[in-house]
Amino acid sequence: MALFQYRAADHSGKVVEGIMEAEAEHGVVARLHEMGFVPLRIAAPGEAGRRALRVPFALSVRRKVSQQELLHFTQELSTLLGAGLPLDRSLSVLSNVVEGEEFKKIVRQLLEGVRAGKSLSACMSEHAQVFSRLYVNMIRAGESGGILEGVLRHLVEYLERAHQLKEDVTSALIYPLLLVVVGGCSLIILFIFVIPRFSLIFKDVNEALPLMTRLLIDFSSGLSRYGWIALLLLVVGGAGAFFHIRNPEGRLQWDRWRLNLWLVGDLLGKLETARIARTLAALLRGGVPVLEALGTVQGVVANSHLAQAIAQLQSRVKEGKGMARPMAESRVFPELALQMIAVGEETGKLEGVLVHVADHYDQEVRRTTKRLTSVLEPALILTMALIIGVVVISMVMGILAIYDLPS
Fold first, then answer.
1. Does 300 reside within a domain?
2. pLDDT tens-digit profile of 20-36?
3. Does 243 share its domain with 274?
4. Same domain, 246 and 387
5. Less packed terminus of the chain by CB within 10 Å, N or C?
């Protein structure tokens, strides 16, 4: 038996919190239903405590609503509507239980708008920094079709998968990035502060030193004297590249180049394919028409080269050409995804096939990221060891050369 902290609401909208002992989460859910409550959130006390500790820190550094907070809001709104509570009552409950003062203010504004007679999607569209085009379009489709609860369930699934994939990729890249930062800082300290001290010892016997030692001392001396110029050039070059990328044509060139990078380009292509397929599947399952769904996907996708391809796809679909053939002509989507989408169109099961495409490329991204990091980590460690080894051997050779000099 374990302890679980729960948050639930009764049918009048009153929120209650407490701790319950059960074997698993589903046991807590069942007992809350027996008691006449609608479960909103269930977590182990330790996990809830960790979330509580994270929230104040997050609020101290930003006012933006996080994806995790949006996911919790969507889950809880779906649960309350599924339990039979009206939309305004559900929003009233959530305005008191969502995490973060900024998000509470937004939910209260949604509640005021709904009570004033506006649709939920119209209210959400006024907060584009929180609710994306995809989110708003799916809510609008759910409202028009009378299936808002079902659309919210699809949104929960979409947000959970997208968040999980982002967390997996980020977690896999943290250690290599840490190695690069720590290793780079160590080398800078070594070449700017440590080696110059040795150069003072070798100052009077420079010509008698081995070539490797002289080259290392000269490199360190040049870095100490002119390193600021290299840093300045790097900053200027970075700023120039940044402003070039902000230009639409420059951004298009940058995104096209990224997709053609060795190893990394394939990973980015799979990541974007998974995102496009999952977004399109979520929109179609939510009742959004294909052309409108493609327009939304175009605004959601991060890579402008792929967004351009989707814009061309939208125009071809409007002409009645279908999706698979125009996607193949664009030559930016993986062959397996094209074959699966073609089969989905032929069988009339495009939504389900898109979900399978997204799941497949999610797994491919995880596997590729794991393989890359498993190779990258030892490669970075060996590179650092090699550089430090060369430095140590060069210094030792210089010291031995001094001892070999005639007295």
1. yes
2. 777 777 777 777 777 77
3. yes
4. yes
5. C
